[in-house]
DNA sequence: TCGACCGATGTTTACGTCAACATCTCGGAG
DNA sequence: CTCCGAGATGTTGACGTAAACATCGGTCGA
């Protein structure tokens, strides 16, 4: 009945306003906000009431300043425009949110130097408690001016990193794909690779090669791609002219899709004349034509684990272990035994 | 030569540490940091040197507390797992970054009440200067406890909102698609709709209907979908049994892809027996089989404009105008004249 | 009955920065 | 030679919160 007038917007309601309204001290308000200690239920209710009627919202900046904690995780990625990155970010955001943390996107500026485009970022202000680096590049980490005192978890990195690494088990996935094709009876398996700048792509390629070698099969030259459907299409155009190729392992589903397109255009039948395996298991992959056999990776697990490890580091645990998330092969209709 | 020892990590370097090292006052450090005023070049250099050698980073919380500005934009979205949302977020992040702002993902918690799942979010703490709502739901805005004093821009909203709205011109896009099919000589066009909870989906449907009516064509019943390939596949299964259907406008590319799959499985030829148009123009769409005719929407423009408008609001301009971004039709191989 | 102890609440102070104001230096005009 | 002003730099005091410490009743056992 008192503060009804919605006249001029007061600036901001602070804890002391609430305290005055509830007839308690600021400190008690703080305790109620943080669900702390024993505050007498009656007092608590009185404070709560005052908070809602005044529309009080704790000032996060002040809180962070005082406590030194931002309850915020920073994420560094080059681009959101890839299926994997997006899914990973989604999972990270969800996991962080469950722990009552917020996710902020830390900008990465591209820089061209000596012909190579590298990333250069100056995280000039510390406003995060931890950082997840989801970056895909031949990136010298020194190019990113990272805070020294903030825990960091890295995805898609060389294992050489001293930081904790969380990643899909690229090697296992590529082996699954390659072995599947060999098991079907193909003499060997060709590979439509991802960009050399990606650690994931490199590991998939290495594992494909190792699997062939372990089976004593010839290792054909690699088709170089860059994750895109158009690079897959270009590779597909080469493949359709070479009847001796009966099986291809594509570095990701988009590349596989591009190959499928070339096959359609030139009448190369899949899987009768050519078996194709992808990697990622995008939601669309089961509707490609034919539905794509592919390696499913669990982006959700990767995102969730990276937050778990990061939070442990933030909480002070030293030397958190790196973690590898297994994949599984999803067999659909793009693979078959070679024609006799 | 002096501070070489990397012994124990000091806590944080503050402006006063820098001031001491450079032999100036904190205020001068602050001036240098903000590139302000006239600071004697010699002094400026001295301070800069001290900053780098000490590894000084301004404390963003303190800065925000003092200035009341966070240099941060909050983004509210249900899920990142849709092509459009992801692209929009990417564009928003880029635009914000160009203006030296950071983007944070504000979590939205799902809540089920009375059988309907609604969003409930308590943005309990204000830590953003403005908010972009990219939400797709029959959402009573009161369900989200938004700060009252923060500028907001809405995407994918009913036009009824009093807030500034930025969106793709859904109506124009749907008209383009429908008219294209009519122009090819189809008697009428069927529609594989998106979920009713999406304003975009509803507007595409309305415009499809209006276009048919304006052309004096019969308006067939709507196939109800939910953006996914599997709903498109389900719709496709119905279509393949009905030879009288010669043209379909799908609410998005995924739905179209599902329809294509059903056509392949049951030998309904596209575009000879059925013309299909999508909406979005995903990067994969030109590699579908056949390459998909679709409506291209410019997510980049939507993201960029939303930030422009939001920033203007933050800067104090009242009543920012809503904006509609045009689409364009991309004709590929999934559409043709009906067979005579 | 009294003192110790415990739970509930209040008081003080510092977190790091920036705005406002104060001061200081130096050159040039009168 | 003095005074004034402009530019350079320093000092003080919030911003809103939470940690540390202080205080104040009341309960319970000896």
TrEMBL record, chains A, B:
InterPro entries the record matches: HTH_LacI, LacI/GalR-like_sensor, Lambda_DNA-bd_dom_sf, Peripla_BP_I
SUPFAM superfamilies recorded: lambda repressor-like DNA-binding domains, Periplasmic binding protein-like I
One Pfam family recorded for the sequence: LacI
Keywords: DNA-binding, Transcription, Transcription regulation
DNA-binding listed as a keyword: yes
SMART domains associated with the record: HTH_LACI
Residue stretches making up the HTH lacI-type domain: 13-67
GO molecular function: DNA binding
Top-level lineage group: Bacteria
Residues forming coiled coils: none
Identification of the protein by name: LacI family DNA-binding transcriptional regulator
Source species of the chain: Frondihabitans cladoniiphilus
């Amino acid at each position: 009945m008192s503060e009804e007038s919605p006249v001029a917007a007061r600036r901001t309601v602070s804890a002391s306003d609430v305290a005055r309204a509830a007839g308690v001290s600021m400190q008690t308000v703080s305790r109620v906000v943080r669900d702390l200690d024993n505050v007498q239920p009656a007092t608590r209710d009185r404070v709560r009431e005052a908070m809602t009627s005044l529309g009080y919202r704790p000032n996060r900046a002040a809180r962070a300043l005082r406590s030194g904690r931002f309850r915020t995780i920073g994420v560094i990625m080059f681009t959101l425009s890839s299926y994997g990155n997006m899914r990973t970010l989604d999972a990270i955001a969800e996991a962080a949110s469950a722990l009552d943390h917020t996710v902020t996107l830390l900008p990465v500026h591209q820089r061209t130097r000596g012909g190579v485009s590298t990333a250069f970022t100056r995280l000039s202000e510390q406003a995060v408690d931890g950082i997840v680096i989801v970056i895909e590049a031949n990136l010298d980490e020194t190019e990113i001016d990272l805070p020294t005192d903030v825990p960091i978890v890295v995805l898609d990195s060389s294992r050489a990193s001293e930081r904790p690494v969380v990643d899909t088990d690229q090697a296992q996935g590529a082996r699954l794909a390659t072995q599947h094709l060999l098991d079907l009876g193909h003499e060997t398996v060709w590979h439509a690779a991802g960009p050399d700048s990606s650690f994931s792509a490199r590991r998939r390629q290495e594992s494909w090669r190792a699997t062939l070698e372990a089976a004593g099969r010839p290792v054909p030259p690699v088709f170089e791609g860059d994750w895109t459907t158009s690079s897959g299409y270009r590779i597909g155009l080469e493949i359709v002219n070479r009847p001796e190729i009966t099986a291809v392992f594509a570095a990701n589903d988009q590349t596989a899709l591009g190959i499928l397109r070339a096959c359609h255009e030139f009448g190369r039948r899949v899987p009768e004349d050519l078996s194709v395996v992808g990697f990622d298991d995008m939601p669309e992959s089961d509707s490609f034509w034919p539905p794509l056999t592919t390696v499913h990776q669990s982006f959700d697990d990767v995102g969730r684990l990276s937050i778990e490890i990061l939070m442990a580091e933030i909480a002070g645990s030293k030397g958190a272990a790196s973690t590898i998330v297994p994949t599984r092969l999803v067999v659909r209709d793009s693979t078959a035994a070679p024609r006799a």
